[in-house]
Amino acid sequence: MKKKNSSSSGLGQLLIPLVALGILIVFNLFRDISFFSITMRVNNSGNSVLAGNLISVIDSASELAIIAMGMTLVTAACGGQDISVGAVGAISGAVFVKVLQGMGSITVSSVIIGLVLCCLATIVFKLFNGTLVAVFRIQPMIATLILYSCGRSIAYWINGDATPQLNSPIISSIGMTIPGIPIPTPIFAVLLVGLLLFLVFRFTSLSLYTQSVGINANAARLNGINPTYIKLVSFILLGVCVSVASIIGVCRLGQLNHKTLLVDIEMDAILAVAIGGNNLGGGRFKLIGSILGAYIIQMLTTTLYAMNVAPVNVKAYKAIVIIIIVVAGSPVVKSKLTALWNRIRSGGPQNAQKEGVS
Amino acid sequence: MQNEIVLTMRGICKYFPGVKALENVDFTLRKGTIHALMGENGAGKSTLIKVLTGVYPMDAGEIRIEGIDHPVVVHSPQEAQSYGISTVYQEITLCPNLTVAENMFIGRSKGRGVDWKAMEKRSGELLDSLGIPARPRQQLGSCSLAVQQMVAIARAVDTECKVLILDEPTSSLDDKEVEMLFALMRDLKARGVGIIFVTHFLEQVYAVSDQITVLRNGQLVGEYAVRDLPQVKLVEKMIGKDLEDLSVIKKHAPPAGENSVNYYEAENLSSSESRPFDFHIARGEVNGFTGLLGSGRSESVRAIFGADPATGGTVRVDGKHVKISKPLDAMKHGIGYLPEDRKRDGIIADLSVRDNITLALQVVKGMNHPISRAKAEAFADEYIKALDIKTASSDTPIKSLSGGNQQKVILARWLLTHPQYLILDEPTRGIDVGTKTEIQKLVLKLAEEGMSITFISSEIEEMLRTCSRLIVMRDRKIVGELTGDELTQEHVMKTIAGGEQ
Amino acid sequence: MADKNRGARIRQREPLTDAQMLMFISIGIFAAMYLAAMLTLKGGFLKPQQIFDLLNDNAALIIIACSLTIVMIGGGINISVGGVIGLTVMSCALFLNKVGVESSFLSILLTFLLALGIGLGFGLLQGFLVSYLEIQPFIVTLAGMFLARGLTTILSVNPVKVQHEAFLALVKTKLKIDWLGYTAKNGNLIPAKIEIGAIVAIAVVVLMYLMLRYTKLGRSIYAVGGNRQSALMLGINVKRSIFWSYVISGLLSGLAGFVFLMHKPAGNASVAMRGEMDAIAASIIGGTLLTGGVGNVIGTLFGAMILATIQKIIALSPLNASWWQEMANGAMLGFFIILQSVVLSARSRGRAKRLTREKAAPQPPEDPPPSA
């Protein structure tokens, strides 16, 4: 596929998502201003926490935002998407729970060991995908279709049919709030992963390498970059993101259900990347765009819930909004609108540029 | 008959954001003539062609075609075809996954069905009559590039076209194939087709053309008969200033034999794509690989740079044994490589000029030592100025620059790494005369400063001007090495052709 | 027309193209797998009915796999097909139960048109967005999938069983072929049974094969998938070709929904869940490349049959569990994907070698070209 010509200025890419978010906010302002009210309330475990739709949006978008960041990297480097993130997330969650069960008691150290081990397990699976993509040159979507179709079965195989419960204050601290801190912990996880990636980009030139590989792997190789390595790195980072997200998912519910953990998140994550104005064909990327995309998707879902749309029906409305957003962001529509705008501004038939938008 | 006008373009204008690509350009084509369209890169040749074939809409002007009594507006290549305008582009614009026959007929036939039998019969006849070595049912992707190009021409020939546009058709063909193409062009001319011929090779223009139209900076310079316009004058018209006499460039003196130290030495070097060969280059030396297309000259330099996996041989850089198995190894030993195919191997199209300039240096420094933004900007500005790169800013994506300026950016990329040894594979292909001369001069200047340079070019003249030693290749083997008095065009040709024994 | 020279020239055997190669691999593997099943599992696999059962059970899959093959040849993707089946099945089930038309033939016809209409609607919308507004197909059809799934649950969250008697009779209608049948233990002849859906699926494969091979639209889709830019330069209406590939794909999804309902006459929110992924897998196994330009519905038919056979083998083996099923599918898919990659790269390397040899073979010109 040919790369689309897109405006390369920084804000241009973020314009559509920002406008979309703005419209959602304004819509909610008019619909019901109480959507934005934030209150303190005491939760089941006796901690006082912040509550309200906004908090819930930011909280529940956490897994999506984290995975969207990793997805952005894979998209940029490989020019395709990993559709197995949900399934591998289920495996990751299963490993986490298995480790905790194997250690007997849930302590901070056992959680950390669980985190490390499930990170490793995820990275192994992501490297499987990465190898197919980077070494065997298989299109990412096809390569990851394998784990997409059998990942949840592997999760089942690890943990059996049960939905094991994890009851511990440590687990609820990760999935909900830490006693004494009123802000949900997953939000910190997003900040942490975001900060980690920011530091990686700040103190290495990974971003430049990734974009080079995504735009022209041949040229990148002849400039001394190893495209295979860069693609594998993007999958490893995605693996880390997926395991963090899966642990949040498990801890949020306090149980593991391999059938529903992070289910369908791959679709939302790809959507977040696209809404953030990133080219799904790879190359240049903006992490912040994808994060914005994730919050837009969650904001939309929460808004629909607040309007009493049944959860199973949300998809239909979501689809319509997505179509509107991508149509607004379509290069064809953009250039038509620009042409129209120019015609209105010049205000006459004399303009020679009426067809001249390329 | 000879003066019958088949196509007139008047006052053509085409604007891109911030650029006047064509301004008030006129063009006239007569029946049965070959009309060369000349100009430097960015002069507007391609844009004019694309306006004529409906790829770009024009912003002003009118196009008249013989037999149609009103000005036409061409909206698509398909529509252009229906007016009798066919185009063969520089890059193969055929579908590699379809058969040869399909590629000749798709998009042209009437009706909704496909009659394979008739199509394959007709295409077989046509291939035979034009002497093209391809079979109708062969998958196009399995043909060589030259054959693919000819299939494209066969397709155009078959459309009963009045106007045939050949946009740089010869850039991937060797001399023999070029001759075949010219024979074909003369044949078509005799049949009354008007041919628009776009090329960078001046000799080729004089070999086949009748008329020349010159464009510069999107404006018409003039239309001339070939016999009235000697080559020097043509170049003058194209670059708009008196061409600095090329002979002024002082021939590079090889470093004296005694004092010369080999910077790079290879014995029995071979890669997955090249046969074993020996090679060495001294500090401050400019040498070159020459030979026909496919003779293995590019593969050899790729082996030196580690671009293809090495399969054997010993390499010494600066007297020390080293192992070069990938580009990064070569770069760490002070070797730079400007690849033959700029688009495929050189530029990172969507990245800015700045990122493209600093890329190689960044890689040499390592991923964990990013160049700061301020430094990168300083580097970029320095080289934009030094090489006179025409770009709006260092933030502009490289893809929006003209070919010559893109090439300068890639050159800047390697100069920034301060290489000891620079390999330039076809650095002047597809770029305008002015930049060509600049690059040649730069090569000689760098050599004087002590850099070793290996230079490859399809134009032997250019090689003779810059290199003090020529390595001649044939059939992927080195067949000769020419120095000193042997460096004449005739001698080189003989060696290439194998007539020296 | 009798032109011997021409005939000789054209009939010269061409080497297998990549597409044919991949297709033959998948046909070969299907045959080998089926043979292995016959030898080891015996039972049903020894009867022709087994093949018909595979077709009967997977008619809808075969149809949507074809629909995906077409879109993928054009360089696109359509992940809404499963959702469209779900929506079609649900709407048709509800419609059949509510329809007040006297004539049962008319009501079935109306249902059929409804199914095609839904598919056509999705096809038109997605085709327009992808081709004329140039939006990434993955996102467009993802939205399509969300829309279809959402509309399905809006129609009904609970399963809907078809009560329409004429339709249920249609469901039971089977083509019986005596000579392919077998004699049961009690001596009765049990003829081979083929459902209408299976016949429709085979008809779709044949029709789509003819469409892709013998119509301009079909060849245009190949050209666009092979190289979009070139196709434009060759005078092909690229946008229209892409548009129609999605319209056909949508239409086939609607048809697949109707076929699904004829096999299992009940609507359910989870009908054909992940059907798109099975369809993509079938296409890939059959030799279609996601990069576009290469593929063939005959291969896709065998791709779908391979998936169906794995399913059957596992169902008959001691490993009968849905998770073994999925793992086997995944493993098979992985095997094919890697095989394709290896075969293609080996072939392209071989081709490059041959070309350079061809290029090097003719000796350089005898005389040096005249110098200027």
Structural overview:
The complex is a heterotrimer of chains A (358), B (501) and C (372). Chain A has a two-stranded antiparallel sheet with strand order 1-2. Chain A is mainly alpha-helical and 358 residues long. Chain A has helices at 10-31, 53-60, 62-78, 85-103, 108-134, 140-159, 169-175, 185-203, 206-215, 217-222, 227-253, 265-275, 287-306, 314-329, 331-346; strands at 39-42, 48-51. The longest helix of chain A is centred in the middle third of the chain and has 27 residues, at 108-134. Chain A folds into two domains: 10-308, ABC transporter involved in vitamin B12 uptake, BtuC, CATH 1.10.3470; 316-358, no CATH class. Chain B is an alpha/beta fold and 501 residues long. Chain B has a domain at 5-241: P-loop containing nucleotide triphosphate hydrolases (Rossmann fold), CATH 3.40.50. Chain B is 35% helix and 24% strand. Chain B contains 17 helices and 19 strands. In chain B, the strands form four sheets. In chain B, strands 5-6-7-3-8-9 form a six-stranded mixed beta sheet, with helices on both faces. A six-stranded mixed beta sheet of chain B has the order 15-16-17-12-18-19, with helices on both faces. In chain B, strand 16, helix 15 (433-448) and strand 17 (452-456) form a beta-alpha-beta unit. The relative contact order of chain B is 0.10. The longest helix of chain C has 39 residues, at 322-360. Chain C is globular and about 65 Å long. Chain C has 372 residues and is mostly helical. Chain C has 14 helices and four strands. Chain C has a single domain (18-34, 45-165, 196-340), classed as ABC transporter involved in vitamin B12 uptake, BtuC, CATH 1.10.3470. At the B-C interface, helix 2, helix 4 and helix 17 of B face helix 1, helix 9, helix 10 and helix 14 of C.
Question: Briefly, what is this?
Answer:
By secondary structure, chain A is mainly alpha-helical. Chain A has 15 helices and two strands.
